[in-house]
Amino acid sequence: MFTYSFAKYKSYYKDNLILALPIVLSQLGHTLVHMADGMIVGHFAGTVQLAAVSLVNSLFMLILVLGLGISYGLTPLIAQANGSKNKEECGHLLSNSLLINAVTSFILYGLVLLVYYKVIDHLGQSPDVVLHAKPYLQFMGISIFPLMIFQAFKQFTEGLGFTKQAMMVSIWGNVINVILGIIFVRGMFGIAPMGVSGVGLSTLIDRILMAIAMGTYVFNSKNFKTYLSEFKLFSFDFSRIKKIAKLGAPVAMQYSFEISAFSGAGILIGTIGKVEQAAHFTALSLAAFTYMLATGIANAATIKTGNNFGSKNFGSLRLSAIASYHIVIVFMSATAILFMLANNLLPYIYTSDQTVITIAAQLLILAGFFQLFDGTQAVGLGVLRGLGDVNMPTFITFLSYWVIGIPVGYLLGFEFGMGVEGIWYGLTFGLLTASILLFIRFQNRTKKLAAEKTELHQV
């Protein structure tokens, strides 16, 4: 039985992994920026500054994922157009995606300013933490503009199956970010020590260079000549804008409901204390690292699903999707074991503060438990996105994280006195709910598509 099942999925495992691995590495770029910022600040500036990075990331990640979600609306449309051999449409979609991402950048920066001037002082956080957080938040807000331009080119190339260039740009961008971050934070080569502001400035420079590199690649590579034959920078079409936004906006909401739940948890934990907040950031950053790996697998599933959906190959669509579920389960099981076995060692990546390490080590045990749920819900969203099914999954994410996850976490953490761990138990329960409901949705949608095709052939 096992041999038969493996043979049935073997080619899909290979194809999906070949597509997914570069996406996984490029997806890590977003998380590695924040991880690197935390590591540099934690080791060279101290616990208060690390708590400031945690606070900003809790707030900024919610804003960031709105932008990332909007940009992801391009990928399934590119994959579907390519699957149906409509290459010229890809160029039209790219020009309209650049407009949407540019407009989104201004809106998101407006939200950053709102947080900076109206919100951050009223969250019950330590005043010294807020003082260090504000300049870092400003730099992160400005970095949204080049990041969204980078995303337009990245999602365009990945939708066509060209995934390695974005991976390389992300890797080199993070190398530059780390080098500049250390120089700016410590104050080297005649530069005055900048503290937390230093990692903000390094992130901004990194994202500007990434946008330039990705745009240069797209417009100069022979791989995209036929796809860009109809591309015009200022050629906008409302129907295409609406099509991209119709997919991108719900995807943005899906990400925001999950990330905002973790951000909300971070703010709740910040009211307990700055040491607990630093521990939360340490454990969550490691969990976010593996989550971004899972979203890389999920994005590959979106592309494969979109290709098969565009060519109406529903049998391969279902087999490919299930293979993606298998891959993410194996991978997240491995990371769960790592978190549980090395829970006392991994926090040293960020800090040497023993109190922070003790709390973070306990949270990594819980992170190990929710790894499987986090990975499978990510793939579920990715597959459904490839089908163009985004509205019901958006409701499922809201239900899972804000109707179930956060209320349960608050109840356990504060009413039952379980503190930080209670809040994390609530998040785990929310992830479990999402993974189950999204898998049921996937099963129903793909079986319905197969049945409709069978009926069509019979007619």
Beta-strand share of residues: under 5%
Major β-sheet annotation: none
Stretches with pLDDT under 50, minimum 5 residues? 455-459
User: Mean of the pLDDT scores?
Assistant: 80
Percent of residues in helical segments?
A: over 70%
Shape: globular
As a whole number of angstroms, the C-alpha radius of gyration is 22 Å
Structural class: mainly alpha
Question: Topology as H/E string?
Answer: HHHHHHHHHHHHHH
DSSP helix count?
14
Distance between the termini: 35 Å
**Number of β-strand runs:** 0
Describe the fold and architecture.
The chain has 459 residues and is mainly α. Helix content is 85%, strand content 0%. It has 14 helices and no strands. Helix 1 (2-44) packs parallel to helix 7 (164-186) and helix 4 (87-119) runs parallel beside helix 9 (238-272). The model is unreliable at 455-459 (pLDDT under 50). This is Multidrug-efflux transporter. Keywords: Antiport, Cell membrane, Ion transport, Membrane, Transmembrane, Transmembrane helix, Transport. The chain crosses the membrane at residues 59-78, 98-116, 136-153, 165-185, 191-219, 252-272, 278-301, 322-342, 354-373, 394-416, 422-440. It is found in: Cell membrane. Its main location: membrane.
